[in-house]
Amino acid sequence: MRPTLVLCGPMGSGKSAVGRRAATALGVAIHDTDAMIEERAGRTIAEIFAADGEPAFREIERDVVVEALGTTAGVLALGGGAVLHPDTRRALAGYRADGGVVVFLDVSARQALLRIGTDQRRPMLHGDGESPRQRWNRIAAERRAVYEEVASHVVTTDRGTPAAVARRILALLPDA
Ligand code: S3P
């Protein structure tokens, strides 16, 4: 079993919102790795970061994402940093080699930050010395090459409703 479609991209790029619309249109389930991690850990992501730190979170995330790539059907939305782990990148390369579709949802800082708003549930955006905007920009710049490496397609989500973006993505699927 494998996903019909995998979505990656930075925080606020619309992975969950667009993924939900794409899944509904396809008549399949949506799986969100952030929710799967929280379920497995029995804690929120913010709690995992606060208690154990980012490296511990990335290990759980790696396990969840690699497993999900082999065991879930439907649309799989990855947490923004999931692509950082080399094991995850290897698993995504295998999925793509097998004909899988990985879409990088690209977004401007302006739009992403508007969507995220003042949501406090993203620990990566909060830390000493930098504003959430500065952190988002730095993280997005650091990861851009990795998103491009793992993706088979890039779709910009700045314009259009999540449903309209989902339609653009569905047109990329092999049997659309
Ligand atoms: C993270 C993104 C979050 C979540 C965690 C870390 C990141 O997911 O996995 O807070 O490092 O970019 P979303 O991209 O769904 O917000």
From TrEMBL:
One of its GO terms (biological process) is aromatic amino acid family biosynthetic process. PROSITE patterns: SHIKIMATE_KINASE. Keywords: Amino-acid biosynthesis, Aromatic amino acid biosynthesis, ATP-binding, Cytoplasm, Kinase, Magnesium, Metal-binding, Nucleotide-binding, Transferase. ATP binds at residues 12-17, 122. Its cofactor is Mg(2+). Binds 1 Mg(2+) ion per subunit. GO terms for molecular function: ATP binding; magnesium ion binding; shikimate kinase activity. One of its GO terms (cellular component) is cytosol. Pathway: Metabolic intermediate biosynthesis; chorismate biosynthesis; chorismate from D-erythrose 4-phosphate and phosphoenolpyruvate: step 5/7. Its EC number is 2.7.1.71. Its main location: cytoplasm. It is an enzyme of class 2 (transferase). Substrate binds at residues 34, 58, 80, 143. This is Shikimate kinase. It comes from Salana multivorans. The gene is aroK.
